[in-house]
């Protein structure tokens, strides 16, 4: 009897596990960014450092974490003097992290085509370090957004499928670096010298905005191929566009090509 119960538990666990999918995403992206808080110039960067980890299940729930690093400079790295010592200026450095969650519902399902619509939470945690030789500036962009998404899936064969996905938050809480960068409020926010308290202070400093005040459009085209009963491989192209006006205009676009390996 105990062996039968153990076998039943193992079968239930296996059946539950088949409803879940874990995916690793690796690739490269091209970033173009103009933030008038810091500079009127468009900073461009190509980075091969992109890592993503995603979980999803058959109930159209999806949780994803992405991180990528970018280094940008308008000019070649120049030398400068500091206390009679020659030094080389560092490049600007951007750390971009996304944490997204979505829940969808099937609205159309045919033999080779399906359509899913739902709600998604798009959250950005971006840290920018602008370097000007002897001095530099730290900046941040924090966003907690909620809105709709739409996903279409085409299955030309039993082992291959194409997915198209697009989303835009309807509302968001956005925190950005102040226009004068190191103003009194910024200095007060970092005075605790605690990373978590500082992050909390930055978030509290934000404003509630609607889709009329900002754009955070994410689109993805993905090809997936079955490699076995529990293994899939894939390739995707993503285009993200971000536009915020206050306190000064920020425009950013990001193109990326990514490879995927998934266990289900």
Protein architecture, described:
With 264 residues, the chain is mainly beta. The protein is built from 3 helices and 14 strands. The chain has helices at residues 2-17, 184-189, 195-204, and strands at residues 20-35, 43-57, 61-72, 79-82, 85-88, 92-109, 113-131, 136-157, 160-167, 171-176, 207-210, 214-226, 231-244, 250-263. The radius of gyration is 22 Å and the shape is globular. The two termini are 30 Å apart. 21% of the residues are buried.
Question: What order do the helices and strands come in, and which of them pair?
Answer:
Layout lengths: L1 H16 L2 E16 L7 E15 L3 E12 L6 E4 L2 E4 L3 E18 L3 E19 L4 E22 L2 E8 L3 E6 L7 H6 L5 H10 L2 E4 L3 E13 L4 E14 L5 E14 L1
Antiparallel strand pairs: 1-2, 1-14, 2-3, 3-6, 4-5, 6-7, 7-8, 8-9, 8-10, 9-12, 10-11, 12-13, 13-14
Helix % is 10-25%
Strand portion, in percent? over 45%
Shape: globular
SSE-based structural type: mainly beta
Q: Describe the strand arrangement of the main beta sheet, using strand numbers.
A: 1-2-3-6-7-8-9-12-13-14
Order of secondary-structure elements: HEEEEEEEEEEHHEEEE
Count of individual beta strands: 14
Radius of gyration: 22 Å
Question: Ranges with pLDDT <50 over ≥5 residues?
Answer: 7-15
Notable characteristics:
264 residues, two-stranded antiparallel ribbon, 3 helices, mainly beta
What's this, in brief?
The chain has 264 residues and is mostly beta strands. It is built from three helices and 14 strands.
């Amino acid at each position: 009897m105990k062996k039968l119960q153990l076998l039943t538990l193992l079968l239930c666990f296996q059946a539950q596990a088949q409803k879940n999918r874990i995916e690793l995403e690796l690739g490269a992206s091209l970033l173009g960014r103009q933030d008038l808080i810091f500079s009127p110039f468009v900073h461009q960067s190509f980075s091969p450092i992109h890592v993503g980890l995603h979980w999803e299940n058959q109930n159209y729930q999806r949780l994803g974490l992405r991180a990528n690093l970018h280094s940008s400079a308008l000019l070649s790295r120049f030398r400068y003097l500091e206390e009679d010592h020659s030094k080389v200026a560092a490049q600007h450095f951007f750390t971009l992290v996304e944490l997204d969650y979505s829940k969808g519902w099937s609205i159309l399902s045919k033999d080779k085509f399906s359509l899913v619509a739902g709600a998604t939470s798009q959250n950005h945690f971006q840290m920018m370090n602008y370097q000007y030789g002897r001095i530099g500036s730290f900046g941040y962009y924090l966003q907690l957004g909620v809105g709709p998404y739409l996903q279409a899936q085409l299955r030309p064969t039993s082992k291959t499928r194409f997915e198209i996905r697009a989303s835009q938050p309807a509302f968001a809480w956005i925190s950005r670096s102040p226009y004068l960068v190191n103003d009194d409020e910024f200095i007060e926010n970092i005075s605790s010298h605690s990373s978590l308290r500082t992050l909390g202070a930055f978030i509290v400093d934000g404003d509630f905005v609607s889709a009329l005040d900002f754009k955070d459009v994410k689109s993805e085209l993905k090809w997936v191929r079955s490699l076995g009963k529990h293994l899939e491989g894939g390739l995707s192209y993503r285009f993200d566009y971000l536009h915020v006006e206050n306190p000064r205009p920020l425009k950013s676009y990001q193109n990326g090509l990514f490879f995927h390996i998934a266990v289900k």
